[in-house]
Amino acid sequence: ISFFYAPASHVCQAPFEVSGVASGHSNSDDDTVLIAYEGSVLGVPLPHSFVEFRFPSYLFRRFAFASILPLSLSFPMDHTAILSATVGKSLDKFCANVPLRLNDRERVLLNVLNSSLNVSEYTDNVDIVSRRNKANRILQGILEVCSITLGLGLCGSGRKGLSSEMMKAAANEPSENEALLMEIFEVGRRNKILNPSKMRSTYGKLMYLMQDAQSATVARGLGFSLYRDLVMVEPFLEENKAKNLLNDKLLPVAVCPIVEINPLTGDKVPREEINAAVKQKREAIDELVDNYASTTDLSEEDARRVIDSIADAYTVVATNVRPVLRMLELLEDNFVPDSFEKPYSLQLKGSSRSSGGYGYGMGRFGFGGGGGSSSAGATLSHDHTTQYWFVWQTLKLWEHIQKNMHNLWVAADDDLLSTSSSYSLWNTGQGLNRVQNCPKVARMMHNYLSHVQNAAKRPWVGLSVVHLGDRDVPNALVFIDKYTQVPRILGPIVDFVDGMNDFCANPKIKAYVEELFTSQERLRKKVLCDYFKHGFDGSGDDGGSCIDGRLTSSWNWTSRIAKKSYYHAFMMSGFQGFDGDWKDE
């Protein structure tokens, strides 16, 4: 019998061709496992030919088939199903909040904006306690950034035919260049959503400057606005009478990435299949461009930009979701909830309570962060089973959040630049921070949390509190930054565990590992056990069991890795840190 199993996909749907039917049940009370045959499960019609598994991998090892008929599976490439499974929704719904990729002109404007923000000291001069009139400081700071931007634009405008435009703009007052400045600042906001790893030292200044410019008092003093709506794929297509592109059957083929490893089976894809897929993708892109450039208001360049934008967004989501899914798989493959192997129990005994705060020890955007201090040790008291489900449910929530990060980015942008909600400057325990309500982000987060809680089919472990607009998570900027850290935290752990066989191929490293940890398997389990315990030990606010405190605990664990017994093994594997590449270039 050939049995298909998709790692870490606890409710996984995958396209397939099958002959024969198998059914069975586990030795526990979990869901019955059904394998569908051409649109039916045991004679019950289904709308699609999908196979659905509803059991974690630890049950697979003790799975008992009730009945078996001859079965074989093969996996043709269904691009629509693969894309929908990765992003958690249909492609047309996914594109509603996908930003449009920058064109050549916009890239020049982005470089100008980045350069001006790099030399600006806006937040240092505005977010302070001072007797000087704050409105005057804000006005002076905004006008200074706008003037620097226009000046740098003139200096670097030799490319892309911007010389005459920038020369004219530099000769005018900032208020006379409202349309150009709106375009420049929108490009910066859009680029951050497209490339979350970029603008890490300037994005905070950009958003806080625009947040101040949205104030009614400041707007009257400026006499012009810096805000315009983000340019998104779906509205852009509607404007150009080409929205049907999102439902074109060729679009999934055009945006689906070419992979060397089959994500469904884990097998290496033969070179001839890769070449055929590349050819198929190119032909699909060319056909889409020809069709919609000739029948709509889209130019060929814009049609390609739309397709590339969707492909970029899908790749970002897939890249960020991958380490979360892998950690779920590692949890299920190495631990079971109802028993444990000594000394790999996940049991926690709390000793103290944190004093609050989201616990980042550094400013994530080049200025002081918010939040309070974190505890030095575990504050949760969980037995092995409770801790297992606490970690499992948290990872499932992170998976769902990563799939919807584009929605959250747009909601955070709306909340930060809202004209109906102002901010207050508070000392949150790590300096002065802007505290502002986040109604759109809060609504989305509660919807996502409710979805995961319903799908878990188990009592929720820990608190369901989502901190937003308080001392723990002062505003939407801090919130969105917290959840961009998830793949940066989990990625290095996954790389270490999965790459252990490769770096232990060196005889000296292998001897070191065996001398200190007895075997590679023991080292692997030691690292995973330590993270699943102390990366979720309650060293965040509310005892660490609130939604944001779970992520704080993981961040605190990363700051202590240098004191771990396996730290040198991490370093020998090529590990350099959890913070990614800080530089924008």
SSE layout:
Elements: E1 11-15, E2 17-19, E3 22-25, E4 33-34, E5 40-41, E6 44-45, E7 50-54, H1 57-60, E8 64-68, E9 72-74, H2 79-87, H3 91-94, H4 104-119, H5 122-126, H6 134-155, H7 163-170, H8 178-194, H9 203-213, H10 216-222, H11 233-239, H12 251-255, H13 271-295, H14 300-334, H15 384-403, H16 405-416, E10 424-427, E11 432-435, H17 439-456, H18 476-484, H19 486-498, H20 500-503, H21 507-517, H22 520-534, H23 547-559, H24 567-572
Antiparallel strand pairs: 1-7, 2-9, 3-4, 3-8, 5-6, 10-11
Helix pairs in contact: 4-6, 4-8, 6-7, 6-10, 8-9, 13-14, 14-15, 14-19, 15-17, 16-17, 16-18
Any overview of this molecule?
By secondary structure, the protein is mostly helical. Helices cover 51% and strands 7% of the residues. The chain contains 24 helices and eleven strands. The protein has helices at 57-60, 79-87, 91-94, 104-119, 122-126, 134-155, 163-170, 178-194, 203-213, 216-222, 233-239, 251-255, 271-295, 300-334, 384-403, 405-416, 439-456, 476-484, 486-498, 500-503, 507-517, 520-534, 547-559, 567-572; strands at residues 11-15, 17-19, 22-25, 33-34, 40-41, 44-45, 50-54, 64-68, 72-74, 424-427, 432-435. The strands form five sheets. A three-stranded antiparallel beta sheet has the order 4-3-8, with no helix packed on it. Strands 1-7 form a two-stranded antiparallel sheet. Strand 3 (22-25) and strand 4 (33-34) form a beta hairpin. It is globular. 39% of the residues are buried.
